[in-house]
Amino acid sequence: MPDASSSSTGAGTQSGRRNADYAVLDFERPIMELERKIRELKQIPDVNLNGELKPLERKRDRLLEDIFGRLSPWQIVSVARHPDRPQFMEYVEGMCDEYVELHGDRLFGDDHAISTGFARIGDRRFLLVGQRKGRDVKEKLRCNFGCAHPEGYRKALAKMKLAARFGLPIVTMINTPGAYPGVGAEERGQAWAIAENIMEMSRLDVPVICIVIGEGGSGGALGIGVGDRVLMLEYAYYSVISPEGCAGILWHDGSRAKDAAEALRLTSRDLERLKVIDEVIKEPLGAAHRDPSAMIERLKETLVKNLDELSAMDPAERMAKRYERLRGLGNDVDALDPQPELPAGKAPAKAKSKKKK
Amino acid sequence: MPFFRKKREIPAGLWMKCPACGKMAFTKTVEESHRVCPECDHHMKVNGPLRVKQLLDDGGERLGEDLIPKDLLRFRSEGETYEDVLERSRIKSGVSEAATAARGTIEGIPVTLLAMDFSFRGGSMGVVVGERVAMAADDAYERQVPFILVATSGGARMQEGALSLMQMAKTSAAIARLKEAGLPYIVLLADPCTGGVSASFAALGDVTLAEPGALIGFAGPRVIQNTIKAKLPEGFQRSEFLLEKGYVDRIVHRSKLRDELATLLRYMHKPAAELATAAVGEADGGDASNESDES
Predict the structure, then answer these.
(1) Residue B218 is nearest to which of A190, A200, A250, comparing CB atoms?
(2) Which residues contact B88 (CB under 8 A, 6 or more apart)?
(3) CB 3.0-4.6 Å disulfide test: which of A25, A280, A326, A335 passes with A268?
(4) Contact predicate A2/B129, CB 8 Å
């Protein structure tokens, strides 16, 4: 069954797989070797090793450019899921001068998978909505690995409506394997909660900016993902279904996630061409996890630029444009170029190590 | 007589087997009872064109049939292109996409109707399904008539990737506009309705009806079972369960569906003529004259 929600099975795969040595992705190994050497050289005191250090660093940067310049879609998925990739709370701490968290949906409870609150950058005040996966085990459990329940979506909507009442722009940060597929979630109307958010977000009469910072897992992402502009980090992914789920449905073989990742066209570049997103935010050399503060700074700049542009627009015109954007999704799109033939190389090895479940 | 008992002696299509109780019934009887099993009352699947025929007074006028899905992702699976998949589905189902839109009347009340179709790729939503839904909502908006939607779908169309996901946003935006204009939107949930369809326009009805025993939910039962690693409760995610949980207004037997819709519409919609008279009476020109220009 082509079930959009299957992506949420990611919740299960994550918990089992994440451990300390996973932080190095297979295709990063050659870089790690060089980085280790550089670190060792730097630790030798009182000796000027610039002569040896500089070429090594140049070599490392070239290697980074080379590897990250041609990541396969499946490798991009693993970068988007990288345990050291900056998450919502790091962005909040790194870019906001203030964050006043507001809890609870007034109907059922407070879902920690989605955080909402008033935020300030300089004198720009707005509402921030972000999906949280959690860092350590305890926090991950509290955040349900980033898989929100209906109360999470309803909290987000309640706060967004609050923001609209007071004329505050809304910024959402998306990072979820998917909305949670559980008994309680179904009993409390997961489908209804997400649908309501999508519809209401199309009509909120304040600027709305959505940023995919990691995993854009299907309806669970779209539930806070409708707005005037959708931005996406270079190595984030956004998909109708997780590659694992897609492979399971199409080929009855979840281990072919790599092939599914290729077929789904879930990378920022492809999605920009398909006009699903409006702007790609470039990541630092070697992706966000290698230099979180540079990433946070870059996201902040892009966010501020977009906030200012949207705030300067005539509200009626902005609303009309949003409607036009949403109504036209998928209509005036050119077909993508055919898939390049897969270069038989490192990529398949990667897929093997990841797929046990 | 022995030869009657042999399956292949039965003229094709004369008898059919109920997928729920397994009993044989005259195809003609089943069709006459709106494809409801005469033995166990199981509501069998109904395709888009037949729904339109069952619900509208005189079959109605089809909309958007010229919209045909495209292979925007150049999706390949086991050497098969998406175009191949579509062609196969068209031949198998006899329809051009998983949604059929039409204009017409229900007991004389003008409506726009969209009926989804599980027989075409499991009712999955791609760009054209999304566009037909949005276009039908627009049609209702422009003609100022109620919008009726029959939803049945396994979710999003994987072969259209994120573009199919985005149809959730497109359709919901069109529904929002319809609602803001004060026009009624009635949804009938038919078996099954899950995934991206259930989490967008299918969940936005002003009134939500469901056929008996329909599977309705965000995630499919298999996905949930794999996640929680436990057996699901009896009747979980069925219409009756959803009614109990407060997400469905009424469960309606298919034989009464037309009547129910007409009854509801008489509460929720004033005919355009009445609205115009009221507007003229209230505003005495001004806005009212603009409205009459449009209609």
Answers:
(1) A190
(2) none
(3) A280
(4) no
- Nearest CB among A241, A274, A335 relative to B158 is that of A241
B141 close to B110: Cβ distance less than 8 angstroms: no
Q: Cα separation of B260 and B263, whole Å?
A: 5
- Which residue in the set A198, A241, A323 is minimally distant from B168, CB to CB? A198
* pLDDT for the residue numbered A129: 98
d(CA A209, CA A322): 11
Residue in A with minimal Cα distance to B232: A183
* Pairwise pLDDT comparison (B170 vs A351), residue with the higher score: B170
> Rg of chain A's alpha carbons, rounded to an integer?
21
Q: What one-letter code names the amino acid at B65?
A: E
Contacting B residues, span 152-191, partner chain A, CB-CB under 8 Å: 154-158, 160-170, 172-177, 180
Q: How far is B254 from chain A (nearest CA, A)?
A: 24
Residue contact A271–B158, C-beta within 8 A:
no
Query: Would you say how long chain B is, in residues?
Result: 295
CB–CB of B162/A333 below 8 Å? no
Q: CB-based contact (8 Å) between B131 and chain A?
A: yes
Cα dihedral across residues A131, A133, A135, A141: positive or negative: positive
Shortest Cα distance, chain A CAs vs residue B230, angstroms: 10
Tens of pLDDT, residues A34-59: 888 888 888 887 667 777 888 889 99
Whether B121 contacts A2, CB under 8 Å: yes
CA B72, chain centre distance (Å): 25
Query: CA angle at residue B242 from B239 to B243, to 5 degrees?
Result: 85
| Whether residue B276 has pLDDT greater than 90 | no
Q: Which of B84, B120, B166 to mutate to test the interface with A (most CBs of A within 10 A)?
A: B166
Q: Is the peptide bond before A348 cis (omega within 30 degrees of 0)?
A: no
Alpha-carbon gap, residue A129 to A88, rounded angstroms: 9
- How many whole angstroms separate alpha carbon A253 and alpha carbon A332? 34
What local confidence, expressed as pLDDT, does residue A10 receive? 36
Q: Virtual CA dihedral for B86, A340, A272, A77, nearest 10 degrees? A: 100
Return d(Cα B55, Cα B211) in angstroms, integer: 14
| Residue from B120, B125, B133, B165 whose CB has the most chain A CBs within 10 Å, to mutate | B165
Alpha carbon of B73 to those of A251, B2, B214: distances in Å?
A: 18, 55, 33
- Please give, rounded to a whole number of angstroms, the shortest distance from the CA of A10 to a CA of chain B: 9
Closest CA to A227 of A293, A277, A268, A193: A277
A279 Ramachandran zone, left/alpha/beta (phi>0; psi -120 to 50)? beta
Q: What digits encode the pLDDT tens for the residues B202-231?
A: 999 999 999 999 999 999 998 999 888 889
3-state secondary structure chain B: CHHHHCHHHCCCCCEEECCCCCCEEEHHHHHHCCCECCCCCCECCCCHHHHHHHHCCCCCEEECCCCCCCCCCCCEECCEEHHHHHHHHHHHHCCCCCEEEEEEEECCEEEEEEEECCCCHHHCECHHHHHHHHHHHHHHHHHCCCEEEEEEECCECHHHHHHHHHHHHHHHHHHHHHHHCCCCEEEEEEEEECHHHHCCHHHCCCEEEECCCCEECCCCHHHHHHHHCCCCCCCCCEHHHHHHHCCCCEECCHHHHHHHHHHHHHHHCCCHHHHHHHHHHHHCCCHHHHHHHHC
**Interface contact flag, A186 B71, Cβ < 8 Å:** no
Q: Does residue B85 belong to the interface with chain A, where contact is any CB pair within 8 Å?
A: no
